[in-house]
Amino acid sequence: MVRRRLAVRFGVQLAGAGALLVVLAVVVIIWILARFEEIEIRRNFAPTGISRLIAESRTDAGGLIADPVLLERLREDGGWLQSLDDYGNVIQSFNAPDDLPDRYLPGRLMDYWIGNEPYPYRLGLWIQEKDGVTYTLLYGARSPTEDLLGRLIDDGRLDGGSLSFSEATLAMLGQRDGWVQVLDREGRELGAWGRPEGAPTSYTLQDLALQTINNDGVGTLMDTRYDKRTGYTWVYQYPMSEAQRHAMPIPGMMPEAQVMIAGLVVFLLGALLLFIVLSVWYANRFGTPLIHILGAIRRLGGGEYAELFPQHQPKRRWFALRKKGAAGKRRNRIFGEVFESLESLTRALRAGKDAAERTQRTREEWIAGVTHDMKTPLASIQGYAHMLAADRYSWTEDEIRKFASVILEKSEYMDKLINDLSLTYRLRSGDMPVVFEEQDARDLLEKAVVRASGQPGYDGGRVLLSLPSSPVPAELHEPWFERIVDNLVANAFLHNPPDTILRIAMTQGEGEGSWRIDFADNGRGMDEQTVERLFDRYYRGLNTESGSEGSGLGMAVAKELVQAMGGRIEARSEPGHGTVVSLIWDSGRGERVRTADVQAGRDGS
Q1: Which coarse location class describes where this protein primarily resides (predicted)?
Q2: Fewer Cβ atoms within 10 Å of its own Cβ: the N or the C terminal residue of the chain?
């Protein structure tokens, strides 16, 4: 159960961690795509910027209400937009110069668009639907250096590897902080103006193509114009604008590469953070309780059976015992059963250790008591035997009979002691197969009391018997029942003053087959410790001068016999207030036999 629970828990948590990584990867990919779109818009507003402008615009009766940020990007790109109706009329204009017409003839606009007719701007046509309305946007752009390149060609003078321009042209060049180069047909430099040191002096076809289209890697922009009259190529280079540099935070690296690296770093950092969080969580959730469990097992192996968590220390949440209700089960469904098992094992081992210590103490008490009581009659027997065997004495026949009587009495006491010990052990081991016969417990009790109270020295008048009016059917073993009554009557008279009164009352219970017998005397009573150990074997011994009625095992034998017949025995007493011993039967014989078997096996262990 615990293995499956741990497997499910780890599987669910790892799946959850994987799902978080997938979500993080999706977020990073979305961010990368958005950044790619931003880079493309900054690099060239059309067509990505136009599509986004339409998608993010709001509409009203006058047309599109564009995002101011995108319009600023349009202005930085040097482009403009015009919204046309189905007939070429201009509805709206965005950043449009003054030289643009208010209406385009459809056929002529197509010639402008595909290049069949010259037009001062590069055109793009974008048709997109939004909110059920189809919008036609005309995009135009002109390089910010196009007019400047034309002026440079017309105004520039090439003289021996150097270029010169008029004051007006130099003022225009100074505004952009750029430089000019003139290349021959092979791409070698013929002359230059303002070229910084380290700038190339020759260009291949690939150099011009790549740097003209993609300037991000070098941090400068390049525009070229071919002069048909001379066959020269005029090259004008100038630094990127602030917005363009912002799109490329690491000089010399493509913006797309920077975005990819940033996205990868974010994903790896997120995965590392998730791994750290999971590691800390697993260490706290599983590692710490496992360490405590192993420590508890190690202490148990070393013979330390103290509580895993003493009462003065608060129990940790992951070790709290399982409580009723869904909340408690959720909190403890992993290690709750393990902890409960450890607690049960600790209690069982502690109880076993305590029981072993008690057994050892009891065994020592048995040995001491039995040795004492065996030595006393044995000493008497040996003494009289030596007297009879002595040659220097001559004994009369009466003296010999008296000695023999004492020897017989002491030997009978020893025999009774041995028989009682044997009986208690056989009862505890369950090795006493007997046949229970259904009889009237009322009649059995009456006969047993008459027999027990008739012993010399008991004075039968001190026994008061109370019986129910109706029969009490019960399945009992008559010799055992009489032995129980004998022992209880003897115990009441032998350990109390001579004037003690014993009241024996039999009553029937409410349930079928339920009845009890109470033996109540008005003697000196017992303290709590004596009551608790009243039924222990040889807890309270009698010396041989008390007669042969007691072996010191009477109450222990009575308890074993009552349990063997399916009943139970209880005692209540206070010093100076007498003692009450109760024999109680609560159920039928079948249940009694099962109870006796279980009890015999438990006590015998």
Answers
A1: membrane
A2: N
Does residue 293 belong to any structural domain of this protein? yes
Please, which pLDDT band fits residue 29 given cuts at 50, 70 and 90?
very high
Q: pTM score > 0.70 for this model?
A: no
Host domain of residue 222? 145-247
Asked if residue 583 is part of any domain, the answer here is yes
499 secondary structure, DSSP code:
T
Condensed to tens digits (0 to 9), the pLDDT of residues 501-514 reads 999 999 998 878 89
Query: Are 33 and 62 members of one domain?
Result: no
Is residue 323 included in any domain, yes or no?
Answer: no
Q: Please say which residue of 265, 280, 301 terminates a domain.
A: 301
Answer yes or no: do 11 and 38 share one domain.
yes
Please tell me the distance from the alpha carbon of residue 18 to that of residue 367, in angstroms, as a whole number.
71
**pLDDT tens for each residue of 226-255:** 988 889 999 998 887 665 555 555 555 677
Residues 440, 470 within the same domain: yes
Distance CA 82, CA 112 (A): 15
Residue 388 lies in a domain: no
Helix (H/G/I), strand (E/B), else coil: 441: helix
CA distance 265 to 40: 22
Measured distance CA(236)–CA(239) in Å, rounded: 11
Cβ burial of 515 (10 Å; 0-12, 13-18, 19+) is buried
Report residue 216's pLDDT band, with 50, 70 and 90 as the boundaries: low
d(CA 274, CA 478): 79
Distance set, CA 231 to CA 186, 190, 427 (Å): 10, 12, 128
CA–CA separation, 220 vs 214, rounded Å? 10
3-state DSSP assignment of residue 176: helix
Tracing tokens 């008279």 back to the chain, one arrives at: 493
**pLDDT, tens only, 497-553:** 888 999 999 999 887 889 999 999 999 999 998 898 888 766 654 333 444 444 557
